[in-house]
């Protein structure tokens, strides 16, 4: 179950921390009247925390793996005929990764949204390094997507199992712009079109 407005230091030190330089407008516009900030504006607090899978996962049926194996076999045969031996090993590696990601359930990890940033498992991202956010659904999970200003990861994908999406939205909107319509890259559009015309699973899935 999600924990709302629970005191929690993300750093081991119990000392109070000053607000990051350059983020005064974020704090004054976003949380100046927030009940959490009445006691001490500089205290690091966990606003929401929950536990959920590390990545979207839905167990695939046999038709999915059969289709993937057929495609890899076909591409490998074409690569062999054209003398692209290294490409064959690359395709086999991709096939193994696809099998592992879609057959082995991910472990559950802890997620936190605090007055300082976002924590995913053992990784922390300050609000200053994040760009904007939106929600979508993937593999029967509600997903919080956060674009970053970092080279890697360029986007955070956060599973919202067991937490209220509106509560998460309210916290994130205090620090980041919200996309009413989820942005899609050219690769996303191409992938959706390919999946629509050449589904990897039987239609009933």
What features would you describe in this structure?
The protein is an alpha+beta fold and 205 residues long. It folds into 2 domains: 3-12 and 21-56 and 106-188, Roll (PH-domain like); 62-103. The protein has helices spanning 24-30, 62-81, 85-103, 165-173, 186-197; strands at residues 3-6, 46-53, 108-114, 117-120, 123-126, 130-138, 141-148, 155-159.
List the helices and strands and how they pair.
Elements: E1 3-6, H1 24-30, E2 46-53, H2 62-81, H3 85-103, E3 108-114, E4 117-120, E5 123-126, E6 130-138, E7 141-148, E8 155-159, H4 165-173, H5 186-197
Antiparallel strand pairs: 1-2, 2-3, 3-4, 4-5, 6-7, 7-8
Helix pairs in contact: 2-3
Strand segment tally: 8
* CATH topology (fold) name of the largest domain: PH-domain like
Q: Spatial order of the strands in the main sheet?
A: 1-2-3-4-5
CA(first)-CA(last) distance:
29 Å
- CATH architecture of the largest domain, by name, is Roll
Task: Output the helix-strand order.
Answer: EHEHHEEEEEEHH
Q: Mean pLDDT, as a whole number?
A: 78
What count of helical segments does DSSP give? 5
Radius of gyration: 21 Å
Which class best fits the helix and strand makeup? alpha+beta
> Which residues sit in consecutive blocks of at least 5 with pLDDT less than 50?
5-39
Tally of individual domains: 2
Roughly what fraction of the amino acids lie in strands? Answer: 15-25%
Estimated helix fraction: 25-40%
Largest sheet, in brief, is: 5 strands, antiparallel
Outline, from the CA principal axes?
elongated
